[in-house]
Design brief:
Elements: H1 11-33, E1 46-48, E2 54-56, H2 60-66, E3 70-73, H3 86-91, E4 97-99, E5 110-114, E6 135-139, E7 159-162, E8 169-170, E9 176-177, E10 192-197, H4 208-217, E11 223-226, H5 239-244, E12 246-252, H6 263-271, E13 274-278, H7 282-285, E14 295-296, H8 303-315, H9 317-321, E15 330-331, H10 341-356, H11 366-370
Parallel strand pairs: 3-4, 3-5, 5-6, 6-7, 7-8, 10-11, 10-12, 12-13, 13-14
Antiparallel strand pairs: 1-2, 9-15
Helix pairs in contact: 4-8
Length: about 375
């Protein structure tokens, strides 16, 4: 006869019940503490941000990927406007949120200010207190000859953006190195020997040197002239095709300063034409392009000697082709062909810098730096 427990249940049966209960408890404990691989993962919780993006409360890395620094363009340079999306489509730059909405001033990581737009009394600059995290960028792509000093702005800026290589943000389209030698480049068909496009020939811009050289050069070789300065406006869509139709292009800068080498030089290189340069010394140009990709006026004692050399190259096809040997190893990227194209590249370059550099910085006495 079996014994019973104090509950009245036979001991044998009670032992079985306890064993079953223990097994169930262990099973529940296992599934409670083990990952449920067949269950859907817990979705991250997002909250809406002011710029339309979402913040991941569970993953700070995801937040960093979504939230971009804000770059506020305070004034459109010379009131020329373009679609901010061009930074992505043309230059593959998309690291910041570009805006011209001044209502976002207090939350902007950086403010881009065009030097020529600053009024003499400084009243068109931001008047609200500058947030401690905010950086002001001085945008100036003109040469010292065409830059005026505005009292009170010397120590306002954190960063300088300029054509100068020693600027905090140097802006320039550069040649790119080919991973493998390119044998496919073909020189465009030419029906003109020498060409020049001039839009502004005002004396105050410092064009005296280049005009004097041109006036002497044209005595010895025919130069096809284009541009508003000579009454033959050239549509922007015809810019590269016109330059490509010339064997040589006069890449004459309006003033001569260190690193002041503009799109007048890059344009012909991109179009498949040999630039004839007048600007800083040859060694300065060779920092940006192979020495046998261009002709420098300083290589000749006078304009007549240069004209004779160009005429000689016109008759010697093999000698002319040697000015394109660099194409095997490098590629030249064209500018965006629009009015005031240098501002598009400058603004996009500023965006790229703001996205890459979060550290705080100050620029002291920009004029001491720029005019020396």
């Amino acid at each position: 006869m079996s014994s019973t427990s104090f509950t009245g249940i036979p001991v044998g049966r009670l032992t079985g019940i306890v064993a079953i209960a223990g097994l169930v408890s262990l099973t529940l404990l296992y599934f409670w503490t083990s990952p449920l691989t067949n269950c859907p993962p817990r979705l991250p919780q997002f909250k809406q941000l002011s710029d339309g993006h979402h913040e991941d409360k569970n993953n700070s890395i995801a937040e960093e990927k979504v939230v971009k620094p804000v770059l506020l363009l305070w004034v459109w340079p010379v009131n020329y406007r373009f679609d901010f999306k061009d930074c992505k489509t043309v230059y593959n730059i998309d690291g910041c949120h570009l805006t011209d909405d001044r209502a976002l001033y207090s939350s902007s990581d950086a403010v881009l200010i065009f030097h020529k737009s600053i009024s003499w009394d400084l009243l068109n600059l931001p008047q609200s207190p500058r947030p401690s995290f905010q950086k002001w960028i001085w945008l100036n792509v003109e040469s010292p000859t065409n830059t005026r000093k505005i009292p009170g702005t010397e120590n306002l800026f954190n960063l300088t953006l300029s054509y100068r290589e020693d600027a905090d943000i140097p802006v320039r389209l550069r040649l790119t190195s080919n991973k493998t030698p390119n044998e496919d480049f073909k020189i465009p068909k030419k029906d003109k020997l020498v060409c020049w496009i001039v839009s502004n020939n005002a004396a105050y811009t410092g064009v005296g040197t280049r005009n004097a050289y041109y006036n002497e050069l044209k005595k010895h070789v025919n130069v096809h002239m284009f541009g508003k300065a000579y009454g033959r406006f050239l549509d922007y869509k015809d810019y590269y095709s016109t330059i490509a139709s010339c064997k040589f292009y006069l890449s004459f800068e309006n003033s001569i300063h260190k690193d002041y080498i503009t799109e007048k030089f890059n344009g012909p290189l991109s179009a498949g034409t040999v630039p004839v340069v007048l600007g800083p010394p040859r060694k300065n140009y060779e920092r940006f392009a192979p020495r046998d990709s261009f002709i420098h006026v300083d290589d000749f004692p006078d304009a007549k000697s240069l004209a004779e050399y160009l005429t000689q190259l016109d008759r010697d096809e093999d000698a002319y082709r040697r000015y394109f040997n660099w194409r095997r190893h490098f590629s030249a990227r064209p500018h965006l062909v629009v009015q005031n194209q240098e501002f598009v590249l400058s603004i996009c370059t500023a965006c790229d810098h703001v996205a890459r550099h979060k550290e705080y910085q100050e620029a002291h006495d920009i004029y001491e730096w720029f005019f020396n």
